[in-house]
Amino acid sequence: MPTLALDTSSGIAVAIVGQDGPLAAARLDSDRQHAERLSPLIASALADARLRPADIDRVVVGTGPAPFTGLRAGLVAARTFAYARGIPVFGVCSLDAVALSAAEQLTLPVGTRLLVLSDARRKEVYARRYRIEQSDDAPLGAIPIDAGRSFARAGEPWVSRPAEISFEDESSYVVASPTPIGVLSGSGIGTDRSDLGVDPALLVRVADADLAAGADLPADPLYLRRPDAQVPGPAKKAG
């Protein structure tokens, strides 16, 4: 079941994922011209995977949270690709992929409380909390990390100023995406050089786990606030 996975919540990232894992990937670390650059990137990934668009069976897309323009371009591209071929499209919170990447690359132990942050502009961040659980005791809907660990979402994503976020205890970790600034715990901050941005292939793993649990995965955007650009109101009449 070849899957086209893409995310434009931070830059532009595309992956072609087969039954046994990623077949090809392409990325542009740019927050501009998403609509113009996304189609060539998809074509490049398909060529690297030696597949045609008709070979793709489904689409998985990151739904943010993210600023309006870039996120919208990815969702429109995903829906258009799926509609043209009569295949399903599923949406996954982009922060979920960052959480899975952090849990794997940082080998976070069971009991860790994970807080994932990404740049929301306007001196704000998008945030979502997670817990690393033992797989045998994990709640329904938890996402498998490996044989012994899963991660569970601890609430919905939100947008906030960093100073307004509380850090619950010393097992809390903070991962800043797309450019990791470090991992923050109760004992201080330590530099981390891992790539903890949104990996579209991990979006597919999250989607598979959610679908297996019976979740509905609409490809609807998580903007969490109004667009930066607003339509001006009617001009006031001169008094």
TrEMBL record:
Q: Which GO terms describe its cellular component?
A: cytosol
Name all Gcp-like domain ranges.
31-135
Gene Ontology biological process terms from the UniProt entry: tRNA threonylcarbamoyladenosine modification
Q: A Pfam family matched by this chain, by name?
A: TsaD
Q: Would you say which domain of life the source belongs to? A: Bacteria
Concerning PANTHER family, the annotation shows: TRNA N6-ADENOSINE THREONYLCARBAMOYLTRANSFERASE, TRNA THREONYLCARBAMOYLADENOSINE BIOSYNTHESIS PROTEIN TSAB
Tell me what this protein is called.
tRNA threonylcarbamoyladenosine biosynthesis protein TsaB
